[in-house]
Structure formats: C-alpha cells, structure tokens
Amino acid sequence: MTTDPATAARLVNELVALMQLEPLGGDRFRAQSEDIGTPAVFGGQVLGQSLMAASLTVGAERPVHSMHAYFLLPGEHAPIEYSVDRVRDGRSFTTRHVVARQQERIIFEMSASFQTVDEGVEHQFDMPEVDGPDGLISELDQRIALGDRLPEPWRTKAIQPHGIEYRRVDPEDLIAPQVRPTSAQSAIWMRAIAPLPDDPMVHRALLAYASDHGLLRAAMLPHGLSFMSGQVRPASLDHAMWFHRDFRMDDWLLYVLDSPSAGGARGLCRGSLYARDGRLVASAAQEGMLRIRKPAARA
Q1: Mean pLDDT of 27-42
Q2: Residue ranges of the domains in the chain?
Q3: I need a surface site. Which of 179, 222, 224, 285 has the fewest CB within 10 A?
Q4: Which DSSP category does 232 fall into?
Q5: Per-residue pLDDT tens over the stretch 131-142
C-alpha cells in the first residue's frame, strides 16, 4: 500500500506531536494518547513520551545513553501525566526518574541516564547479512492481504496507514507462523515514512516508541504463536534500551531480534538496531508475560 506524500507527512507529524508534552510546572508534563487498536495504550508510546519528559530536564549536551522501564498497569487511551525526579546531576552523568500516572494510578516508571559526549574504546557486532528493505512487503500490506482471515478486532485500526513502516525480512504468516528453532533470529526494517525534524531528541523518542513493536514476538516464534492467533495473552513487563550511536529515524533501521529464554509464563527478548551503513545504533531488551489461553469448556 503506497501512502501519498501529503498523507505520509500528516501521519508523521501526528506521531511527532504525540511526543510533544505540555509543561505543567515542577517537572510535570501532560501527553496525549493514540489508539492503535490495542486494548490498552501501546507501550511504545509511554516509552517514547517518558524519555521525552526526562530529556526535557537535561541539556542537549548530555544525550541519553540508557533507559530502564517497568509497565505496572495497563494504560487507558487517555491523557497521561509524567513527573520527573532529578535524581542526580554529576560531572559526566545525569540521572532522571519518571513516573507516569492516569487518574492518580501509577501505570509506568522509568529511569534514564544521560552522559556528556566522551571518547573511549570502540567496537560493535557486525550487522547480519540480510535482504535490504527495498522490495519487502510491509506489515500493513500483510495484514490487508489476510482479508477475511484477519481477526475481527484487527479489521479497523490495524489496516490503517501509520507514521512508521515495518517490513519483515522473513514475512511469516501473521496468524499461524511456522515453529522456528530457539536460536533463530528474526529481523524487521523500520523507518518514519516522511522526513522528521532534525531534533535528535525526537528521533530517540520515536526509536523508543518503535522498539516495542515486534520485540515480544521473538519469544513466540519458537512456539508457532502470534498476537493474532488468540492462543496467547501477552503483556510487556519491562523494557530497557541503550543508545550507542547517532541515527535518524526517517532512514531505514534494521531491528534484529532473538529470545534466549522463556519460562514461568515470561519470555525474554533482545533486539539490536543497525543503521543501513552497518553501525549498531541501539540495543533493547524486554521481558513479557506470555500466558497460553485455555480452550473454552464445552457445554
């Protein structure tokens, strides 16, 4: 599905606006919510907005290098208030703690660390050799192609264009994927579908947003499960990110995913994000709840 330039620009502008926070005073901010068709607010939205809230209390000369978050309660599709605690301002490092509330309920908390730009040792894993994004089908087109196979809850917002496009390197069946070896990796290309502002804070917030897409699915692939199958009840529990190098979210990034362990109704998933030139720009990790739904009892 090709999105015309005007629509693409509008969708990206709406996503950028979602990351813009209203100052309430005293390091408190209010943000709006989007409804992408999930029962609760999309976790990536809260990740991006909380990082933006923390970043607004730190000078631009100290970019974020890590964030560690916990999803405490499902969020509603309603405004969210973020409060920032200025934990520490050191010579090289700055620490912030963010709490997200809805109607006095704490739904999320996050700690982020910021650092002055310094020089030191340098190395990284090489980017895997995979097909580039050109010619790959988008996840949106995959959903549309399912037609009547697409479950009813996904037939509205899940087939609408979005400001970020995702293309899987190996586009497996969205409803009944094949069982893969535990050690197998999956990979997704992602980017904003129109140019973004040059503000690095916006790019980092949107990468945090996008990093929640597809990460928990890595723990389902060894079992042939998917979000759309209805067989599993998933929920993100925590999320961590490390920012290594500069990048642009409006250029293609490769998200390489794996899941080293699952057990106790939880799955651990990891992701490495590469720019097209092979630079490792960020890493992510998430543990999520994965509970198998019991079949309905027969009458």
Answers
A1: 93
A2: 5-116+135-292
A3: 179
A4: E
A5: 999 999 999 998
Tell me what the mean pLDDT of segment 241-258 comes to: 98
Tokens of 33: 């919510």
The pLDDT of residue 295: 59
- Written as six digits, the tokens of 167 are 């293309």
Q: How big is the chain by its Cα radius of gyration, in Å?
A: 19
Contact 193, 10 (CB under 8 A): no
Could you give the CA distance from residue 193 to residue 7 in angstroms, rounded to a whole number?
10
Angle at CA of residue 91, ends 201 and 244, nearest 5°: 40
Q: Kindly report the CATH number that applies to the domain delimited by 5-116+135-292.
A: 2.40.160.210
pTM: 0.94
Query: Residue 32's CB: how many other CB atoms inside 10 A?
Result: 16
Separation of alpha carbons 69 and 44, rounded Å: 11
Active site positions, annotated: 212, 236, 286
CB 129 within 8 A of CB 112: no
For the packed helices 200-211 and 43-55, what is the interaxial angle rounded to 10 degrees? Answer: 150
